[in-house]
Amino acid sequence: MKAQGRYLYIQTNDIREGQNAVLGYTRNDDGTLTPLPGNPFYTGGTGINNDTHGKLGPHDNDTPLIVSQDGKRLFTVNTHSNTIAVFDIQSDGTLRHVKGSPFSSRGVAPNSLSLSGTTLLVSNRNEDYHQLEALRGTAKASYVSFTIEQDGTLRFVSKIDVENSQKPTQVYVPSAYPDIAFGNDFQVDVDFDGEGTRSFLAGLKPSVQGQLHVFQVGRDGRLTERRLVQLPETNPGYKYKDMDGVPSMPLGIWAHPTEPLLYVGFVTRNELGVYRFNKEGAMTFLGSVPNSGQDICWVLPNKEGTRLYTINNLPRTDKDDKAATVSTYDISGERAVKPIEISRLQLPHPGEWFINNRMFSHPGSTAFQCVLDPKEQFLYVICQRINQTDENTREEGNILHCLRVDGEGIPSVAHSRHLGQDGVYYRSRPQGITTCDQS
């Protein structure tokens, strides 16, 4: 049965000039999706083209598409065009640009958005291999704030540059602590095979690094940096060229819904880290717990603070995985500070495998961002077609999986939707996913 007023949106991230768009769907009672009339809703820009053999970095982001708390306005990025599109959401779920949209992101390659009241925060990653001059030093990554005017227009307020070639993956404001924002930097720029045929380096010096930022969001929307947090010591097991080790890099970040706790995916260690923070932005590392997947990249707790889901980007060879996985943690009560993994789910994988730029076998479709529906009955997970080089002639791999969440908070696969049927260009990698309900 169709459910009017219950919507889901994704971004096509279309790499063809001016063809980037948002796709809207009505969410049905069983979790299936019905495309909205009027699809696609063009964003007025172009998505980011990562046409390499599984190169890490450019698509490792979260929240490139968000909806306001009242469900009446949608924001998304045009990463290659360096702009942000702003839409009014109509009563039937269709989208209409606000006056002046899209707006400059005031940086290069915007990739993540978050809201603090009427302030929009943006991270500009500056890792677009088709804006190579900026990537190799003429610009820096940045965190930017805008005031959202009543008509949806964005007015620039402040900008903080990111030093040392660090690359943001996410900017995030906890709903319970709207005066604090977190930034997450993650950069991998290494020619792992040493021959240059499988890697597209941004510069001449290998670099693998990451860090966390803590910002104060002022009443006027101005960002002030309070802390720059280096992660726990590096993992000495990784040795490449002249690097001493690969840092314990962060990717996905999300806060507990009621407690001042920040969960961080330590992607290179397959661990979930836990930090306590206060209103002044001080951070205390409480420790980390193991993750059974490979490359824990995105984290998302439920509204009750009893379960936390992680999207693990790759199969884990020591567990004979054939695809990306989803882990479920118990974070109820005292387990909020020391989560316990209680479930792991392997996602369906339709595509071929290939040898990536790090010279190991890689599935052609892997899991990226996720969202829970407002009633938390379904968890939706985007999978992207990874091998976007000319040698890959197969068109499958861009998929939206719908997972049914049972009474214990454990997900299982309910439906899978191949996004090519909805107009997603197979050489693009769709990104960003959100849901909203309107009365």
Q: What report would you give on this structure?
A:
The longest helix is centred in the N-terminal third of the chain and has 7 residues, at 132-138. Strand 12 and strand 13 (154-161) form a beta hairpin. The protein is mainly beta and 439 residues long. The chain has 1 helix and 32 strands. The protein has one helix spanning 132-138; strands at residues 6-11, 21-27, 33-35, 41-42, 65-67, 73-78, 83-89, 95-97, 103-104, 110-116, 119-124, 142-148, 154-161, 168-172, 180-189, 207-217, 223-229, 250-255, 261-266, 271-277, 283-290, 294-301, 307-314, 325-330, 340-346, 353-355, 361-363, 365-372, 378-385, 399-405, 411-418, 431-437. It is globular and about 50 Å long. It starts with 5 loop residues before the first strand and ends with a strand. The protein has a single domain (6-437), classed as Methylamine Dehydrogenase, Chain H, CATH 2.130.10.
Keywords, please?
WD40/YVTN_repeat-like_dom_sf; single chain; mainly beta; Methylamine Dehydrogenase, Chain H; five-stranded antiparallel beta sheet; glucose metabolism; 1 helix; 32 strands; 439 residues
